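Subgroup meeting minutes
Present: P.N., E.W., G.H.
Scribe: E.W.

1. P.N. recapped why we're keeping a running log of single-chain structure predictions: easier to compare across weeks, and new members can see raw inputs and outputs side by side.
2. G.H. added today's entry (157 aa).
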Amino acid sequence: MRSEEFDERFGEPDRGGKAERHGTRKAILESDDRLANLRDESGATPLHYATLNGHRQIVRLLLQRGADINSTDIQFDATPAGWAIEYLREMGGYLAIELDDLAYAIQLGDTRWVARFLKRFPSLRQASDTNGTPFQRLARESGNREIAGLFGLENLP
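Output recorded in log:
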């Protein structure tokens, strides 16, 4: 199933026909349990697309019909939850635990973990922790030249 086909079959309802569309979706899924785990050319399932697009009712329906909540696609090896998170990452969103763990790694002076975070999420160099403190400031205040260098800060006292 291609993304366009998914949107056509399971897409967000019109304001006027919400109950009707919900019933149609449910009827489609009930007609064949295999539809809940159908895969497109990238290995993504309807659950991947429903989570990516924030279709909560469809997510519930798919799970009720046996959709595999932890299925991975072929292209990114990502679960539906991963798709939802990556969508927010594209806009600069991170999990609080990721922000807290980076701040903790800086505090401990763990250069390897700081480098690992910044390799995976380069935009964290311009981000702040959950308290609103910029990571560059934490790096500078850590006094660790190597960590400061990972943030592009060269002039440490």
